[in-house]
Records
---
Amino acid sequence: MREAIANRVKEAFPEISAEISVDERRIVTVRGECRSWEELVEVGHYIAHMEEVKNVVNEMTVAGMEIPHKDYTAFREAGEKKGVIDRKDVVIIGAGVSGCGIARELSKYNLSVVVVEMSDDVCTGASKANNGNIHPGHAAKPGTLKAKLNVLGNRMYDRWAEELNFRLDRCGAMGAICDPKMMSALEQAYQVAVANGVDGVELTDGPRALELVPELREYDGEIIASIWLPSMGLVEPYEVVVALAENAAKNGVSFRFNTTVADILTEDGQVKGVVTSEGIIEADYVINCAGVYADEMSAMAGDKSYTIHGRKGTIAILDKNRKPEFASLSSVLTGAEVQSSSRKNKESKGGGMCRTPEWNILLGPSATEVPDKEDNTTTPEDLDYAMATNSNDAAGYSDIIRIFAGVRPADYTEDFIIEMSPVTHGFINVGGIQSPGLAAAPAIAQMVEGILIDDCKERRIPVEKKKDFDPVNPKKVEFRHMTREEQDALIQKDPRYGRIICRCESITEGEILDAIHSPVTPGSIDAIKRRTRAGMGRCQGGFCQPRVLEILARELGKDKTEICQKDGDSRILYDSNRHVTPGGRER
Amino acid sequence: MKKIRTDIAVIGGGPAGMAAALEAKRQGAGDVMIIERDVEPGGILQQCIHDGFGLHRFKKRMAGTEYAQVFIDEIEQTDIKVLTDTMVLEVTQEKTIYACNSRDGMLEIDAKAVILSMGCRERTASQVLLYGYRPAGVLTAGTVQRYINLEGYLPGTSAVILGSGDIGLIMARRMTLEHIEVKGVYEVMPNPGGLTRNIVQCLDDYHIPLHLSTSVTKIHGKKRIEGVTVAKLDENRKVIPGTEEYISCDLLVLAVGLIPENELSIQAGIELDPRTKGPVLDNRFMTSVPGIFAAGNVAVVFDLVDYVSQSGEIAARGAVDYINGKPMEELSYEETVPAGNINFIVPQRIVRGETADTTLFMRVKKPDKKVAMDCEENGTVIATKRYPFVAPPEMISCTVTVSGSGPLKVEMKEGSGNA
């Protein structure tokens, strides 16, 4: 098998001398030197797509390029010095949608669970920087774990939204056609959707398409057919993750932020805990939801079985004054989107034009392979790619209020890896959770719950459901969505809702205080933004940042110079050597 | 919901709003109310502790706060009601205002006339397409000014300023005085964006370099900004390869332009001018919705506060005339037409068939010297003005008597060359 793979790689990439090894699990490790990062990624995909290969560990290098690797030494040494600080049944690494979803699922049981997160808050990685689409599951390759969990997860979202009280907009999606030549492609898409079990998918004629998406009547050409995906949904992703984390915390899960996992403790093939930058946490189970670092965590647990390559996606958000053309995510397919030569990435075309549940037009994401897993820089090329998905003639670059990028944690099979490690018992991998990871999250959480609870039973660890588990989050006050009468009544009851802090999004002081005094305390300006939308509008915090900063300092009993924008040393203010009175600060 | 009736409601208690309210009172208006979102009136002047305000109006150099105080004091002598800490959420075509605060809850204010004076906001990093990371330490000049002047904190120790608009220049000096090292001011355009006097007094006097046709092309630093890449731009504003330079800094100050804050106007269905990004105004500074007027930076970004106050007074006289029953519904208009080097004119139109003293506020497209400007109504030159020097950052204001007999063309022909 090794030889056959090596020969095929040599044939496909004659310029590269790749060294191939295969283990008994059919995991291929490839070493050697490539000429570019893109080529390195291509070799990884090429091998992973061979039928007999389970996954690829890509240890190739690139000529003349220093590939950034995270050095955990200092974190590990600091943690070992501090010794054992906690003992839990379950440690979850990473507070993204997977980690928080699983934490909330496990909080139903009499298990002690801690989520450790390297950043200062939940939802700071790939879970944050995406388009918030709850994909129907029509795009995934039939037969993959991704396809299965996507469709299942999508179906489970209504319950999540209802229990956790976040906004889910089942807007539906349509791909319509005017050109009969596009018919076979449309039918093919329909067959894939049916094969994946997508809920409610419909292949329609023209009149039915116009009935479902009336806005298409404005289109110049005659719509002759369409694929309709009623289960397409939209969420604000950070709303989902914050809600999951808050509910988990309410049900007993603890969170440790600014805590980097630097090693996994194992003994005789059994996981024993984690060494973090803040000390050692002993545990019977470690669940690896570390996003772009999941492969490194798995390797620390002695299970080097996949490699994550970061795929950067850049997104542009437009001003709300520019209205989306469609309530649903609908477009007329011309075939150009498939043939587009600007499509750089064979594995992912990225996303298109859509909108947020708050009705901002959202363009992108792009899809660019990056060697640095934390490279969330925006570039003109990526922005142009995202903007090219814009089909609204009235909207353009001048409507942009925010450009951001995130890094998707992709493995080389481009599927999810969810399993109990066959090497280190008790270590559960939840790796490669890229798109549609947000849509699949409820199903991922359920699957991991199954793996863990079954294992507990097998190992005769007594585990039972808690009687006092409360699946419901109270509905949050959203001043902006209330009628004037409701707003008035709210302020009469609690005057703090009468002070608008973020003028662009109409966010009140009361809402910011609600966020600060919630089960998972936010400590930074960005953490407040994710919970309340303060700073998310067209002025991007120019008006509200000083006000939010003041409230944070006051409520957390800190000096203003201690308040950060996000994690790490991201302080906003330094001390002045000047006395300012009155109205300003006094000393 | 508390309901209030008033003759004139002024939205925003900055220099435009305060001047408007006072002028309305002088003209005999009954109930006049200012709705201000901050805890006290004054608007952005509250953080403008530098001097240079009031040269035209008071014939002396005043600090922004000092200039504002003159109006605040005068308002205190009147029965003008100032609702502070109150945010306006909506204005309707029927001139009903919804505003809220902690004391009253939601207020429904029915006004006979409304004067919009919400000012403007600053353009942001995303709006000028700044690429790279999104760390702490990238702030607009106005926010930096607030932190330093109002709150007494410093937002950095070494700064790069992008944009040579007036606030950027003022902050270059201000930060230098606060021992923040200002490494340079970078301007995308080949000409400075701010007033000449500010270039001299804020940059030259402090030996701060101004780099024209240069932009920040990348922001470095994942958590706190660590530096920027700057690069020279060609005449098409494209980066000239090989001119990139890394400059370390822990603060990037953006002074990249102001946008009139017209979200309330858009909600009310008021027509906007794509050039000024403010409402289309007539010579009473009335918007396309009868009874709703606009003044100050919400109408067009002015350079001098003196003009802002003046515009407030024009709008106030219009509003008082309106509530006194001067017919202003379904008026017909003649356009004002910029020609030659004139870029835009506010007001955009004048009332047909009505003789009135009309103040025009204009900006030129490019710098020039020794120029003449003709105001031509319906083909007849009604006024000619000469200027030794014109430049886009310096607004031109002139008052002419129009008869509304036809389009008002204002043309500035080429002078003796680039200034």
---
Amino acid sequence: MATSEENMTGGPAIPRAAAASAKKSGSSLGTIVLAVLVIGAVILPFASKNFFIFQMTQVMVYAIAILGLNLLTGINGQFSLGHGAFYAVGAYTAAILMEMQGVPYGWTIPIAGVLCFVAGFLFGLPALRLEGVYLALATFALAVATPQLLKLSPFEHWTGGVQGIVIIKPDAPFGLDAVLNPDQWLYFFTLVIGLFLYWLARNIVGSRTGRALMAIRDNPIAARSMGVNTAVYKATAFGISAMFTGVAGCLGAIVIQFVAPDSFTFALSVALLVGLVIGGVGWLPGALLGALFIVFIPNVAEDISKGLAGAFYGFFLIAVIYLAPQGAGGLIRSGLARVKRML
Amino acid sequence: MITRRSALMAAVATSALVAGPALAEDPIKIGNVMPYSGPASAYGTIGKTINAYIEMTNAKGGVNGRQIEFISYDDGYSPPKMVEQVRRLVEQDEVTALFQTLGTPTNTAIHKYINAKRVPHLFLATGAAKWDDPENFPMTMGWQPSYVVEAKIYAKYIMDNMPDAKVAMLYQNDDFGKDYYNGFKEGLGDKVDMLVAEAPYEVAAPTVDSEVINLKASGADVFIIIATPKFAAQAIKKSAEIGWEAQRFLTNVSLSVGGVLKPAGFEASKGIISAGYLMEEGDAQFADSPELLEWREFMAEWYPEGDVTSSFTVFGYSVGATIVHTLEMAGDDLSREGILAAAASLKDYDAPLLLPGILINTAEDDFAPIEAMQLQKFDGESWKRFGEVITVD
């Protein structure tokens, strides 16, 4: 399994021997950190108000979406300004299946995942011809078009038009509703799916597929000459990325209990991109930190000044980029390196 | 804003320390969510005006001796953000009531939640008709005349004054347009045959020119334009260009002179009829109205950076006065039930800046506070009111 260090883009070169020992201590440290985080995450809903639980559920939902974007941008090197569209597809899948077909919410998640994988793969095929900023522009078009498509009258029968669809909040199943309220249940539901997807993402990155994806990112020509089918891998990366984001959209719809075209504007795609960069491009755990940023920092900015909330948000963004040019991932890594040097 | 609030909270905390835990001295917490950022941020002016109005009320001693704490958050017109902010208001800030939350999709997102939590959800800033449904949603109440009310007013005027008219209607194909369309048909009642042609258009469409040409071909002599500003300007311009001499009606949503009639052309806009319910700065008829004078003083003292020519500052002042009046009517019972009961029993309340003759009335089975409007005609320069105030139920 690849350690997080290996996945970082453009980091300073670490000497081989040091890297090997760092890898070992890093991964055991990583396991401890992960264990502490999971224990903390399990205790949290019993120690806080429903509103905070709801916010943390939202953080996890966005973290899953950012994780998906990270697989595409950080691991495979393709840009997307249109992941809000896949998020919307996932959300509408959940809403339409639950409210119109009476499908239990749990089943909407794999369905949304498969649907978004197909959508992402198909979008990835024509996008193969586009590189860098041109791909960013093509995906931008996707993000801009989505809310309008959702409002179109031919689809209104399913999408509810501008009115959107209201979803009933699920109660905890298996008699768990005696101990868990709906907010706590959704939190754990999201947590389990989030951990599963994180495990999946790490395994993808550590596998042959992951190495091929990174090879394409670092040097497409070399990758092709080594026998990597770049077209298939790039389109697959788009599909997997869209699947993660679609599952996040599906969970987001269940948590918010409402979908409408105005929920999935271009601002959502930008928020996901911000979360990706803040967390660290190519560093998978960074998704959680990026999600914390996009959920909480706008509120902090608003608390400082209502009139200048946007300006303060921008200020925080610039401050983070200036202090941690490689996102939280880069900051943590350089911090660890400094500690090691001191030791 | 936050500094004033924390100052207020500090003041309250000190008084609590001195006087001991006296619950009656706590401020009344009123929660609100507005788009201060994002595509609809122009509406944020309403929130700022209300905030200024509440500050003024507090400076004058508050309501029944209690201060009002107005907590207003930003949702950027995003439904998920609205859900988060409203949950913050209800579960963290523990507000007594929500007030003037803005937008139809955003309020739809919290409609069920807020009614399940049994928190009063009063005087929403949206004209959809669905907020008047006390049987299913006993916590939620609109304020402004709904689109349905306005459509019925046009229907009534047409039936009374042009009984032989043939009506064509252009409407936006969404909940806003459909509320008008259904309301108008309801207003015509058994004379529904008068509506001879209708053309929905998509918000995503580039123009409505072809719809206007088709509607003219129906031979109608009344043309009703239910469109948001850009499309309204196109429809006005096109109908004049093709020489369609129909009496045109224009939704209140698009009556802005600068935003709609000027781009359409003043000559092309002459003779259009619309309906309003609030006074306007610059209307010669109300130049010396004491209500407007009071409002100007308020703007100068409490919201000097605000725009006096904006209809949003007038709107914010009037709706701000309505909530303060409602709290006063609740008397000593400033619980959720008390405030809701007061809101549902407003009798002939003449909120400031409403047109003369328009009064707010609510009842347990009537959650539509303003149900009257006055017609106005564009004379090529400005709107001129005419006729009586028309009320529909």
